[in-house]
Amino acid sequence: MTTTADKSIEFLKGVGPQRAELLQKELNIFTFKDLLHHFPFRYQNRLEFHQVVDLTTSEYAIQVIGTLSLIREVGAGRSKRMYARFSDSSGAIELVWFQGIQWIKPLLIPGEKYLLYGKARLFGSNWHVAHPELTPFKEIDKRVGYQPIYSSTEKLTAKGLHSRGIERLVQNLWTIISNEIQETLPQYLLEENHLLGAKEAFQKVHFPNNEQEFHEARKRLKFEELLLLQLELNLKKVRLKQETAGWVFEQVGDVFTTFYEHYLPFPLTEAQKRVIREIRKDLRSGKHMNRLLQGDVGSGKTVVSLLVALIGIGNGFQAAIMAPTEILATQHFIGMQELLKNMNVEVALLTGSTKIKERRRIHEGLQKGGIQLLVGTHALLEDVVQFNSLGVVIIDEQHRFGVAQRAKMWKKNTIPPHVLVMTATPIPRTLAMTFYGDLDVSVIDELPPGRKPIQTIHRFEGHRLRLFQFMRDEIALGRQVYIVYPLIEESKKMDYMNLMSGFESISRAFPLPQYAISIVHGQLSAADKEYEMQRFVKGETQIMVATTVIEVGVNVPNASVMIIESAERFGLSQLHQLRGRVGRGAEKSYCILMTGDKLSKEAKKRMATMVNSNDGFEIAEVDLQLRGPGDLMGTQQSGVLDLKIANLSKDGPLITLARDLAIQILEKDPQLIQSENSLLRATMIEVLKTKPNWGKFS
Ligand code: ADP
Ligand code: MG
User: Fold this and answer.
1) Is the CB of 295 under 6 A from ligand 1?
2) CA angle 413, 416, 417 (to 5 degrees)
3) pTM strictly above 0.90
């Protein structure tokens, strides 16, 4: 855009230094352009007028022209009220004010005509409106029509910048900026997708005359936002591919083949095979692999990660597998060591609690190259962990790690090792396209054969005794039971108390020596956790009482019951993850969601979703609708969430369109140098100016 657009907001008529500071702090509005991009979040339809006689209870907000009379104050101090009568030719409405009476009263003139706007309620046979908006009749022109509502804050409101105050600023802005708004998208894109031009879109989003204009405007602006984002992500992907060389793994190698032919404990599913082929292709390409592997809980990602590691090892490189918790890393290590026991592959485990001596041995073994496969936690990221020739890194449950941590692993070799990140938290397609737009994505969309679906049941506290009986029955069949309690930082103390009192009552109901119970929570030392966990894994205990530390990855095939306490406090994806801990053996499994009696509408929906669906992707879609993308993805990727108008949970079709178009455009014209894309190129240069590490595209 132009230099006017970049002017500090302070210099807009009606702003000044004080308001400017507030606008910056509260709404991130620094420049004229920022204000232009501060879009109304909804509109008031003020096209319709009502007559008192026609009012119905279904009316949301009413708009009546009438005369004010009988203004009177009742009561004193805090219980003071002001009433007035408002009548048109057909009837009368009672107006009432509870606050701000001393400011409002002097503005009201009995006998004058006003436009009344507000929410009407029927008490008995009388209509009431509390705190109505009254506009003097001669100013009506300014109020009727389609009114934008801007988000504001308490502090801004105190300085007169409530929605209407902001609206006035936008009006001031429009008079000076409207003629300078330039088109940012090429004509062919506007035509093919039936989009408004830039200027018209801005005008109609701020000053629409009706619903349709507002939809058209928003469509255009959302499209632009999403297209530019997708262009950015895909340019980055293309550039990374072109510029980041990758180690070439010529063959799958002996190690892989020997393992595959002799020691793989089960045939791979078709989905696992397909994913390995996709990865294999990357590893051979000479380009750096940066791939996301998505697969529901229990879909068998671990063995895929091992096979990928073996390809690296067979090509003379080292491999690393990183998991978010010590328990999970240990389990991967033990499992892999077991699978590899007849092969000549040196595996090591490195976590925060690895003893100094062992740690030294590992550091040395990694540098000399003796250790070929390193399994571990965040401890792998430390600078002291240096490899002889790290060829491939696999990050399990990657949503637990930040982008920065991913990047850290890149630096562990002269040419970055190939990176495979895995997640069992299925992400709706539209989100994956946005958050992981710079990654290639593989999906395991098939569970290993023989899994019986898990039956999920929602129960209330009154069911407790029958629940205990059910547990006894299952244990008598030789099964094991998980009981999980919520534990969050904000209510840690209470949560621990609940966990402990739950543990006590379970201990009473399941006494020694007939029963043994493990307990695992964050306040135990790693060694104690491990000990308790191992007792459960070995079948020495029948019940595991735990907090969500067991959420990720733990594998005890004999466990057939997952009881989740206070299930209403968990998010959907977490519930689904927890449920995935059972149903891993051949037996029928159960997930029991225990909740309080009073549930919010949203909590009910979550419980119902869990009861009705075992499909992680379907659950993720519901989760997205309920929580929105921010909560779903965590704050670590929030940079991508900086969307002004598009909505990742609601604009699915538009996201897909933008994605497809971005890919198409870049396939035909990777540098955007063809004349039809010159405008797009200029726009992207503008966009990328504000992003770090983008010097190269210009
Ligand atoms: P996740 O994808 O959740 O990490 P895991 O890798 O832990 O799942 O696998 C879950 C269970 O399924 C493990 O016990 C694993 O040994 C088993 N498994 C994985 N792939 C297969 C397969 N192709 N056939 C049978 N069992 C499999
Ligand atoms: Mg796993």
Assistant:
1) yes
2) 85
3) no
